[in-house]
Amino acid sequence: MGRVAVLFGGRSAEREVSLMSGAGVLEALRRRGVDAHPFDPAERPLDDLRREGFDRAFIALHGRYGEDGTVQGALELLGIPYTGSGVMASAIAMDKVFTKRIWITHGLATPGFAVARSAADVAGAAARFGLPLAVKPSREGSTIGFTKLTSADQAAVAWEIARRHDDEVLCEEFVAGRELTVAILGSGAQARALPIIEIVAPAGNYDYQNKYFRDDTRYVCPAELPAPLAARIAAQALDAYRALNCEGWGRVDVMLRKADAEPFLLEVNTSPGMTGHSLVPMAARAVGMSYEDLCLSILAGASLKIGGAR
């Protein structure tokens, strides 16, 4: 694998989680004999990667300045192969509005939505889609800035919470049902879905704390689903992943509507968490793949997407 930089930390609102992900990946790679080194782009210039002779980069950054195409573009310019999706796929997947627009052109089911640029727009979306309503920043992750709006008179509060993180706010039809996620490894026709995970959070609230810092969220892997439905959801997740031209690995979040067992796509994570609570390692374990093997597999797929292999 050569000399490998594990990029983690960064400047996003998800820095704390990224530090945990990167520490896990770094330790796993070193246990397998990889010459891996920590690299925090918030503390060092990226050009140090070239000056110090790094051959590959494992991106364990989450959110902006790491999962949104910016670091990917810099690595393309530096000529350093990296893990995961390329510049465009990363940028689009980070933007939930553009993601939905592409899925709709591919005939993929996603909850109805509206873009809000004011509290009045949020109130208008609530009138259009009904309550509850999901209100969240378009370009943020880990449910940061998310509000489940249950009363129209709280529209201004929900708007302000989301707007702190992004000037583009997504108002999304709320799908009541089971929360599922599908981890994916590989690219193109070779991409494969790992076993589906169902997330059962306290009071149905899978927020930042419940994702990363509490132990009472329950995960069912594989999710208890009829085989035809599980196959359909996995195929839909793969279609969603390929529609954005994602590569290497990722995770697609899905809501399964309680009323009729119809699946709806929410978003794609192109640099998912790799912490002790994270879902891609959990899905990998379900098919007999250890955390270390998962990290090695992702690293082996590192490449340049624009200029070709170095």
Automatic annotation (TrEMBL):
Pfam families: Dala_Dala_lig_C (PF07478), Dala_Dala_lig_N (PF01820)
Binding site for Mg(2+) 2: 267, 269
Keyword line: ATP-binding, Cell shape, Cell wall biogenesis/degradation, Cytoplasm, Ligase, Magnesium, Manganese, Metal-binding, Nucleotide-binding, Peptidoglycan synthesis
SMART domains with a match to the protein in the record: GARS_A
UniProt GO cellular component terms: cytosol
Note on cofactor: Binds 2 magnesium or manganese ions per subunit.
Cofactor names: Mg(2+); Mn(2+)
E.C. no: 6.3.2.4
Pathway: Cell wall biogenesis; peptidoglycan biosynthesis
BP-aspect Gene Ontology terms: cell wall organization; peptidoglycan biosynthetic process; regulation of cell shape
Compartments where found: Cytoplasm
Active site: 14, 142, 278
Subcellular location, principal: cytoplasm
One GO molecular-function entry: metal ion binding
Keyword ATP-binding: yes
Domain named ATP-grasp: residues: 100-300
Amino acids binding Mg(2+) 1: 253, 267
InterPro entries: ATP-grasp, ATP_grasp_subdomain_1, D-Ala_lig_Van_CS, D_ala_D_ala, Dala_Dala_lig_C, Dala_Dala_lig_N, PreATP-grasp_dom_sf
Catalytic activity: 2 D-alanine + ATP = D-alanyl-D-alanine + ADP + phosphate + H(+)
Family: Belongs to the D-alanine--D-alanine ligase family.
Function description: Cell wall formation.
NCBIfam families for this protein: D_ala_D_alaTIGR, PRK01372.1
Protein's UniProt name: D-alanine--D-alanine ligase
